[in-house]
Amino acid sequence: MIQMLKKFYPSVRTLPSNTSNLPLDYTWFQTEQGEVVGIHQNELTEKDQALLSAFLTKYHVNLPLQTEREKLWRKRLGEDDKERLEEINSPFRFVYFQIRQGHVEPDIFKTTIQEFFTGPISILWHNEYAGILVEEEISQLEESLSYAQISDTLMSELYIKTAFYIGPFLNSLKDIVTYSNILSEQAPSSFQSHDSPVVTFIEDYPFRLIKNLNKQKKIQLSSWILKEFTEDKEALQTIQIFIESNLNLTEASKKLYMHRNSIQYRLDKFHESTGIDVKQFEQAITVYLAILANMHKTE
C-alpha cells in the first residue's frame, strides 16, 4: 500500500511510535490493515482527499495541548547534553505509563491522573496510550498515595487498565535524554515480565541482569544453585515470595496464605538439599537470581 501511494505522493510516511512531535502539515489516514500513513498537505487537493477517503479512513491524532511546563521539559529533552546548562533546585523523576489501547481518551486520562497529585503534573506523551509523567516538587503524589493505589483506582472505578514503570529521582538534568530513552525502552518489556501493573527500576534490574545472560548461562545458573528444585514450582514460588518479603516469614505467610511452619519446612528442605540458607541475605540474592534465570531459561 505504501509503495503504491508513494508513486503519487512522494511525502508518504508511516505514523511514528512517538506522536508527540508530529508535523502539523500532514494529513493522516488508516488502511484496512490498521496501518497509519501520512501525506504532506501540499500534495493533497480536495479531489485527492475525497479519492483517498473512499478506501482509507481519516486518522486523527488526539493528544492534549501542551502546557508551558510540558513545553519546557520537551525543550530540555531536545537539547544536546553540552547545551543543557540549566540547573534545577529540586529532585524529579520520570514515570513511564501505558494505558490499554482504546480504554480512555488522552484528555480524560490527563484530567483523571491530575487528581492524584498536589499540583499540575506534566505529561510527555509518546502516543495516545503511552508517555512519561514528570514528578516534581510542584507536582508530587498526594500524601500516602502510591502508584499501585492509582492503578487499582483507575481500574476499579473507571475501568482504565494502566501500568507504571517508576524511575529513580534525579537531581540534575544531565543525561536526562538517556534516562528518558532507557525508561521508554525498558518499560514495555518489563510489564510483560512482571505480574504487577506497577514496576520500579529497582525491582526490574534483577530481571535485566538475567535477560542479558545467554540461554546456556541461565540454565547453568539455575541448575547449579537450585539443583533438583528447578522443576519444583511450589517450592520455588515459596522461596521467591519469602525473599521478596524481606526474608520475613510472617509477611510471606500472609502473601502465600500459608502457615509459617509450612514455609519454614520448605526453606529447611531447600537448605538440606542444596546447602544454601536463604535466610542469609548474601545467599538469598544468588538464589533469587537463579530463580529468575530458571523462569526465563528458554528465552
From TrEMBL:
Highest taxon of source: Bacteria
Q: Name one Pfam family in it.
A: HTH_30
Give start and end of each PucR C-terminal helix-turn-helix domain: 236-293
PANTHER family annotated for this entry? Answer: CARBOHYDRATE DIACID REGULATOR (PTHR33744)
How is this protein named in the record? Answer: PucR C-terminal helix-turn-helix domain-containing protein
Organism of this sequence: Oceanobacillus kimchii
Q: What is the lineage of its organism?
A: Bacteria, Bacillati, Bacillota, Bacilli, Bacillales
